[in-house]
């Protein structure tokens, strides 16, 4: 190997070594030494310096070795060994993401809105608001009496929510979980949502395990079971196993677990009355009425404001008529706020098709909803006379859609 080739190879190997050292210092600084750029060497560098080598042009070459490629291979092997040792000892990489998380945790977070204020801001639901406030006040006073050493009336915190889809059951459940935390009857206040599929497994003995895992996640908060009557089907041993597991958890963890079951009114009543254990634990019902046409229109307006759409008064009146037609055509299966979400998405999809060919699009073009956007221009029949499809399987779409969010569909 002539001198020129050797110098070129030295330069390449130096770059490899520098890259290795930088990676070790940055990713495994705690294990090898300082990972910061302070000029100090990692222990890996120190070991290289203390090895019986001689340096030529910045490249480490073993004494008596004439093959620099062999030395490069040895250095790479030692590097890989150190990385494996670090991993085996559980050293976590000091990545930029970790650093960012650490910095973010030191930044004070904005305080969350008081859940009672959130409740008051919801569109409609006047009777629900009154029921929740009455219940919360009673639970709060009973806890205060108990803390003061006075006798308190035993209170069942578990609830049955009944009503059609899209009437706000999930969002109100989330608010209650936070209210219960604020008054000290729950330690965490989180809401864990599920349905039959989240509780029942396909093999004997597995349902109890699956249900227990979900209950563990809900401890300190609220377990919300949508369409709970699906657990009580004829000759359904798996569903009954889930019910038995839930009832036991409600008894064992009565001081830090709330269960709310929800669904259509008549099936829910049959479900609760079918089991003495359920009937004794669920004695508080909250009925969620359908929204009025005006309230549904308010929900539509909220979606427009949230996503920066503007709808003129004339077009707004046509939307109101369209909502009325769809509700009448639903034969009692109108999905309330969820239906409005579907309608909103249809309209803005039509709007996008209408303006897509405009070369010089202005913000006002992209914001404005017109009468033309109420119809499907792709060749299908007008959607104006067709009921919107109901997405009844969207468990988490409940009430905040009324406030422009995507939670307003139970």
Automatic annotation (TrEMBL):
One of its GO terms (molecular function) is ATP hydrolysis activity. InterPro entries: AAA+_ATPase, AAA_lid_6, ATPase_AAA_core, CbxX/CfxQ, CbxX/CfxQ_RuBisCO_ESX, P-loop_NTPase. The keyword ATP-binding applies. Residues 31-69, 84-116, 372-410 are annotated as: Disordered. Residues 40-51 have a biased composition (Low complexity). The keyword GTP-binding does not apply. Residues 155-292 form the AAA+ ATPase domain. CDD domains: AAA (cd00009). Residues 52-65, 96-105 have a biased composition (Polar residues). Keywords: ATP-binding, Nucleotide-binding. Residues 372-393, 401-410 have a biased composition (Basic and acidic residues). It comes from the Bacteria. Belongs to the CbxX/CfxQ family. PANTHER family: AAA-TYPE ATPASE FAMILY PROTEIN / ANKYRIN REPEAT FAMILY PROTEIN, AAA-TYPE ATPASE FAMILY PROTEIN _ ANKYRIN REPEAT FAMILY PROTEIN. This is AAA family ATPase.
């Amino acid at each position: 190997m002539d001198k020129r080739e050797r110098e070129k190879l030295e330069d390449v190997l130096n770059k490899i070594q520098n890259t290795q050292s930088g990676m070790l210092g940055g990713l495994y600084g705690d294990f090898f030494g300082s990972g910061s750029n302070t000029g100090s060497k990692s222990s890996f560098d120190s070991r290289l310096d203390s090895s019986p080598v001689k340096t030529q042009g910045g490249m480490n070459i073993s004494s008596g070795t004439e093959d620099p490629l062999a030395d490069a291979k040895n250095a790479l092997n030692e590097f890989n060994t150190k990385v494996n040792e670090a991993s085996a000892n559980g050293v976590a990489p000091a990545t930029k993401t970790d650093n960012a998380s650490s910095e973010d945790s030191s930044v004070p977070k904005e305080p969350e809105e008081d859940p009672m204020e959130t409740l008051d801001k919801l569109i409609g639901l006047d009777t629900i608001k009154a029921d929740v406030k009455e219940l919360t006040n009673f639970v709060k006073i009973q806890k205060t009496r108990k803390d003061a050493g006075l006798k308190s009336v035993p209170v069942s915190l578990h609830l049955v929510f009944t009503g059609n889809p899209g009437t706000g059951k999930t969002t109100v459940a989330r608010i209650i979980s936070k209210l219960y935390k604020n008054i000290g009857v729950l330690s965490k206040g989180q809401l864990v949502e599920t349905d039959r599929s989240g509780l029942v497994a396909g093999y004997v003995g597995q349902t109890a395990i699956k249900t227990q895992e979900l209950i563990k996640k809900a401890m300190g908060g609220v377990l919300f079971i949508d369409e709970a009557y699906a657990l009580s089907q004829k000759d359904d041993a798996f569903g009954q196993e889930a019910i038995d597991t839930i009832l036991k958890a409600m008894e064992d963890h009565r001081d830090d677990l709330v269960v709310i079951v929800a669904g259509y009114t008549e099936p829910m009543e049959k479900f609760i009355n079918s089991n003495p254990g359920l009937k004794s634990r669920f004695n508080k019902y909250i009925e969620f009425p359908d929204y009025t046409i005006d309230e549904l229109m308010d929900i539509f307006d909220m979606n427009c404001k949230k996503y920066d759409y503007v709808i003129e008064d004339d077009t707004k009146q046509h939307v109101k008529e369209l909502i009325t037609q769809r509700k009448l055509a639903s034969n009692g299966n109108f999905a309330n706020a969820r239906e409005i979400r579907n309608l909103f998405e249809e309209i803005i999809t039509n709007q996008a098709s209408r303006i897509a060919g405009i070369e010089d699009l202005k913000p006002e073009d992209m914001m404005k909803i017109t009468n033309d956007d109420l119809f499907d221009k792709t060749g299908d029949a007008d959607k104006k006379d067709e009921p919107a499809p109901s997405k009844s399987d969207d468990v988490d779409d409940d009430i905040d859609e009324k406030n422009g969010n995507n939670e307003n569909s139970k």
